[in-house]
Amino acid sequence: QQQVKQSPQSLIVQKGGISIINCAYENTAFDYFPWYQQFPGKGPALLIAIRPDVSEKKEGRFTISFNKSAKQFSLHIMDSQPGDSATYFCAATEGAQKLVFGQGTRLTINP
Amino acid sequence: GAVVSQHPSRVICKSGTSVKIECRSLDFQATTMFWYRQFPKQSLMLMATSNEGSKATYEQGVEKDKFLINHASLTLSTLTVTSAHPEDSSFYICSARDGKTQYFGPGTRLLVL
User: Fold this and answer.
1) In whole numbers, what is the pLDDT of chain A averaged over residues?
2) Distance from A46 to chain B by nearest Cα, in Å?
3) Which residue blocks in chain A are alpha helix, DSSP H?
4) How confident is the model at residue A1 (pLDDT cuts 50, 70, 90)?
5) Nearest residue on chain B to A4, judged by CA atoms?
6) A104·B43 Cβ contact <8 A
7) Of A26, A80, B2, B68, which is least surrounded by CB within 10 A?
8) pLDDT tens digit string along A68-78?
9) Closest residue of B to A44, CA-based?
């Protein structure tokens, strides 16, 4: 019940396209859902986060869509660029508890 | 966003020696810090939760006598890998919590020869 399932495991998108990464969870007590971006050899960097009382949050080219009833949330990267090539992790947490991470998605943007 | 630093960024040591990794929150105070280990092409594995002024909480399967954690101040937590062996070689990442958000350090690459 503490798992967060992330898909796809890897994704290749053409430059200018839309990248979509999906996550699903079971624990309805989760109340904070961040996305992290990680480049090789670096620590994860917070990209964008959402709370369950909001269905969508947009920051620049990055949008989180949240479906509370389906217990799913997704990251959309608009106008994907080669510099977006990285590994993306979704996560969830309840209250002040530890983060539960998805398995990660390796995104490659072809020029 | 908030900044978390780690030192060193890379360390090579001989088998049997101990290595200390520092994690600092630079522009905020963190009562809670976390230590993760990451294997190539895998997700982050939480090792322990470090609370300022109290003992760390270790995840199941993590040897507390091997991975010593100290959180002596609101901006500093340290992880000491004692009697390191080649199987301890990995990428170690810390994070510090500010409110509900965790900010991660840049990671420390440990190679034990």
Assistant:
1) 95
2) 7
3) none
4) low
5) B43
6) yes
7) A26
8) 999 999 999 99
9) B104
Check if A89 contacts B (Cβ < 8 Å): yes
Return the pLDDT at B72: 83
Considering only the beta carbons, identify the residue of A41, A42, A46 that sits closest to B101.
A46
Q: B70 in contact with A at a CB cutoff of 8 Å?
A: no
A55, amino acid identity:
S
Give the residue from A71, A40, A42 showing the smallest Cα distance to B5: A42
Token pair 């608009």: residue: A78
User: Per residue in B65-89, pLDDT tens?
Assistant: 999 999 989 999 999 999 999 999 9
Distance CA B62, CA B48 (A): 8
Q: How many angstroms separate the CA atoms of A39 and B8, rounded? A: 18
Which among B6, B43, B105 is the nearest to A103, CB-wise? B43
Q: Which residue has the tokens 């350090």?
A: B105
What is the rounded distance in angstroms from the CA atom of residue A83 to the CA atom of residue A91?
A: 22
Q: Which residue of A has its CA nearest to B94?
A: A43
Q: What angle do CA A20, A24, A25 make, to 5 degrees?
A: 155
Q: Which two tokens stand for residue B43?
A: 């997700």
Rounded CA-CA distance A24/B25 in Å is 31
